[in-house]
Amino acid sequence: MRFLRHPASAAVTAAPHPTAADPVRTPKTVVTDAVQRVHPTVRKGTAIVSIALATGTLFVLLSGVIARHGAPVQAFDDNLHAWVIAHRGGLDTSIAGVITIGGATAVTLPTLVVVGALASPARGPRARGRRIGAGVLLAGYASVGVWVGLALNSWIGRVRPPFADWAGVAGGPAFPSGHTTAATLFALSCAWASSSRIRPGWPRVALWTTAGAYAFAVGWTRMWLGVHWPTDVVGGWLYAVTWSGLVWALATRMRRHRPGPAPSAVGSHDE
């Protein structure tokens, strides 16, 4: 007589015992592994958006206080502006007058076309046209950013420091500083476009540090020349970082969802 084995008995197996090679999974390790599996582009995009939101929030708050002629901010500006006027000399003012040219759009925007074209990884028979297109695109994003900044500048309509304190050329309302905005957009754009050609590690850190120093130097000149209040310069930095972060995050998202091979646009790299 044949004995029939219950089908369920065949599926029953002994549960494996955890070993040193198979550690017990905890909620913390599950979350950590999930984060590590996220694509680097996603992590980078999230960080960029976080920075843009932080600087954008600070810019909106500062703009609101300045538009309402907030006394604490103006008192800070008055005190620091008076200190600058009392301590600047002929040599440092002359140096500031040269450095401040780095924030002129007649210098920054055409240079971005060249930087974008040289940094583009485009190859093949149509490489020249694609390189030029990449340069124009890079300069275009900065141009729109400058234009929006000027629109905000006109809308807020802050009055500049007294003309008697000026040691340079300026025009229009004060906040945010146009030269500082243009210089910061230029510096960040150059670093972003060039970073794919720079070895990771200290060379890339040096690249971004140089970009930050460039933006800081031009901003300092606007305050040192007496044509802007200190918070005008801070506003230019905050606005430019916000604009750059949002544009880069959008570009990163578009590249990630674009079908086909990886594009050869400026800055199209995953770090």
Number of helices: 10
Give the topology string: H per helix, E per strand. HHHHHHHHHH
Q: For the record, what CATH class applies? A: Mainly Alpha
Reported for the largest beta sheet, the result is: none
Helix content: 55-70%
Overall residue-averaged pLDDT value: 83
Number of separate domains: 1
N- and C-termini, Cα separation: 70 Å
The CATH architecture can be given as Up-down Bundle
**Which fold name fills CATH's third level, the topology?**
Vanadium-containing Chloroperoxidase, domain 1
Q: In percent, how much strand structure appears in the residues? A: under 5%
Ranges where pLDDT stays below 50 over 5 or more residues in a row are 6-13, 34-39, 260-265
Principal-axis shape: globular
Total strands: the figure is 0
Structural category: mainly alpha
Tell me the radius of gyration.
27 Å
Characterization of the model:
There is one protein chain. The protein has one domain: Up-down Bundle (Vanadium-containing Chloroperoxidase, domain 1). Residues 6-13, 34-39 and 260-265 have low confidence and may be disordered. The longest helix is centred in the middle third of the chain and has 30 residues, at 127-156. It has 271 residues and is an all-alpha fold. Helix 7 (127-156) runs antiparallel to helix 8 and helix 8 (178-194) runs parallel beside helix 10 (230-256). It contains 10 helices and no strands. It has helices at 7-11, 27-37, 40-67, 71-87, 90-99, 105-119, 127-156, 178-194, 202-224, 230-256. It starts with 6 loop residues before the first helix and ends in a 15-residue tail after the last helix.
